[in-house]
Amino acid sequence: MPLKEKISDLVEWFKNRHRPFPWRKLSRESPSFAYAIWVSEVMLQQTRAEVVIPYFSIWMERFPTIESLAAASLTEVIKTWEGLGYYSRARRLWQGAKYLMETNHGRLPDAYEELLNIPGFGPYTAGAVASFAFHKKAAAVDGNVFRVMTRLFAISEPIDKVAIQKLIRNQTLELLPEREPWVAMEALIELGATLCIRKPKCSHCPLEGECLAREQKNAESLPIKSKKEKIEKLYRDVAVIVCEGKVLVGKVKSGRVMADLYEFPYFDRGKLREWLPKEMKILQALDCIEHSFTRFRALLYPHLIRSKNEVVINGYNWVPLKQLRTFPFSSGHRKILGLLEEAKSI
After folding, report:
1. From CA 95, how far away is CA 112, in angstroms rounded?
2. 319-339 pLDDT, tens per residue?
3. What is the pLDDT of residues 117-167, one digit of tens each?
């Protein structure tokens, strides 16, 4: 039987087995329905759905509309996102909300091509919003769908090639039925997230009989990606400097990986003492913290330091310790803040 004719089996499987996430329970009658779908889809990129659930609820409570998001400060937006990682996603949501307030009265357009004009919208986000929010026939191809499609069609070319990505998006679009295509689209994502995983559960798959990779017995080897970037290790001394109840922190500049987050001063391992001003004295070493981001794995060695006065350090400010929890920190430096709050030598 042609694969497209078997999609009805996949849809039936999805309707009976899908996971009950909060964004799947939203009412289409709500004026914020499309916005909430947009938020959930951005959060779900590069993050497991189970992790997203509490962040989604908090975000929608704090920023229930595009208008409320656009009116918020970037610091407030980043703070609400704190802990979810890949902070550029939060920044793009905020930029997108501002764009929509300026150009479309705070409303999301329903056409795929128009959605692509919004800051932060790529092929996946535009396809997902067009499909799930506006029930258009559109391909929303994430990592799960890439995995499903490369196995169904036994595609052995690296999926990070632009031409292969375009091919798979076109194949996905062709598979979608005219009737309720958004359900089939979400079913493909669900299939990749629950059954067509790294080690596939083929015997439970509603499309098992149509899968070329299953037939060729090479499903586990697909999809193929180009050689991954090597993980780079970083070793850093972190200066946790206190002075009369205040702590020295700085905001990461725009364009850097942790842009708009706050951090303590840090140095390559062994360079802290060379930098240390005469007004400062190291009190104690705190526990080492491991912090991974993008292609880096950092080992952070925080040192609690007392300063005789509020020394002026370019790019940094003295902030009362009690206020630091209101600032968004990168996960590694947020752990260090926890160690600081527990320290007895402050």
Report:
1. 19
2. 999 999 999 998 899 999 999
3. 999 999 999 999 999 999 999 999 999 999 999 999 999 999 999 999 999
Amino acid at 257: V
Read off the tokens for 149. Answer: 């499609």
Query: Positive or negative CA dihedral for 337, 341, 342, 346?
Result: positive
pLDDT at 345: 60
> How confident is the model at residue 257, as a pLDDT?
78
| 35-40 long-range Cβ contacts below 8 angstroms, 24+ apart | 35/65, 35/66, 35/108, 36/60, 37/128, 37/129, 37/132, 37/133, 38/93, 38/96, 38/108, 38/125, 38/129, 38/133, 39/93
Cα 245 from Cα 241, distance rounded (Å):
10
CATH topology of domain 232-342: Nucleoside Triphosphate Pyrophosphohydrolase (3.90.79)
Active-site positions? 41
Does residue 279 carry a pLDDT above 70?
yes
pLDDT of residue 295: 83
**pTM of structure:** 0.82
Do residues 328 and 81 lie in contact, with contact meaning Cβ atoms separated by under 8 Å?
A: yes
3-state secondary structure of 264: coil
Asked if the domains at 3-221 and 232-342 fall in one CATH topology, the answer is: no
Fold entry, domain 3-221: Endonuclease III; domain 1 (1.10.340)
Which tokens sit at 227? Answer: 């050689």
Secondary structure class of 301 (helix, strand, coil): strand
Q: What phi and psi, each to the nearest 5 degrees, are found at residue 44?
A: -75, -15
Q: In the chain, what is the straight-line distance between the N-terminal and C-terminal CA atoms, in Å?
A: 71
CA–CA separation, 106 vs 343, rounded Å?
46
